[in-house]
Write a structure and sequence with these properties.
Helix content is 42%, strand content 17%. Strands 1, 2, 3, 4, 5 and 6 form a six-stranded parallel beta sheet that branches. It has helices spanning 18-28, 49-54, 58-69, 86-95, 122-134, 163-189; strands at residues 4-10, 34-39, 72-76, 108-115, 138-139, 145-148. It has six helices and six strands. It is α/β, with parallel strands linked by helices.
């Protein structure tokens, strides 16, 4: 098996967001079997079936191409009012339409997220699991990663400053690599 191509979908538009920082930290860990592509979702129009019926916008074509080329998906979600951001849900909706050409189906995925709160993004992650489940995305069950990202835990360069947190995140990514690799092995065997 070669390197897994992982599409990283960050549910926050802010360049200085905690979740963008967490995504950077995750992609900087020791993951020699994975290559990461950050997927832009902030430029997508709001999903509208009439727009889709008139033709797929170029930003959506780009999104669908990036997801289609990925072997696996890493969702890094903020929590907005105990759920996922509208921006993330919008990207998922665009990628799932038309129903017979959803780019999400059959892909292995992992979910994480960060907030200043102690429970991280637990509620948003549970909602995201439900959304992805109905789209036939195989979401890794364990370990769950609800990150309490306090100031200084991750440097602007993506270095995790706390050894315990770095080890936990490394274990999360190692398990994700094994999880996603099983799907790639099955696809290669077919």
């Amino acid at each position: 098996m070669g390197r897994l191509r992982v599409a990283v979908i960050i549910g926050s538009a802010r360049q200085a967001s905690l979740n963008r920082l967490l995504a950077l930290a995750l992609t900087r860990l020791d993951t020699p079997d994975m290559a990461f592509d950050l997927v832009t979702i902030r430029d997508l129009p709001i999903f509208d079936q009439e727009v889709l019926d008139a033709g797929v916008p170029p930003q959506v074509e780009r999104l669908k191409g990036e997801i289609s080329r990925a072997d696996a998906l890493l969702f890094v979600t903020p929590e907005h009012n105990r759920s996922v951001s509208v921006m993330l849900k919008n990207a998922i909706d665009w990628g799932s339409r038309p129903r017979d050409s959803s780019v999400w189906a059959g892909k292995p995925a992992a979910i994480t997220g960060a907030s200043y709160g102690r429970i991280g993004t637990a509620a948003a992650q549970q909602h995201l699991r439900a959304i992805l489940g109905c789209l036939d995305v195989a979401v890794m069950g364990q370990p769950e990663a609800f990150i309490h990202l306090y100031p200084g835990l991750v440097t602007p360069e993506g270095e995790v400053t706390n050894d315990e947190t770095r080890l936990f995140l490394q274990g999360f990514m190692d398990q994700f690599g094994r999880w996603a690799g099983r799907f790639a092995d099955k696809a290669n065997a077919a």
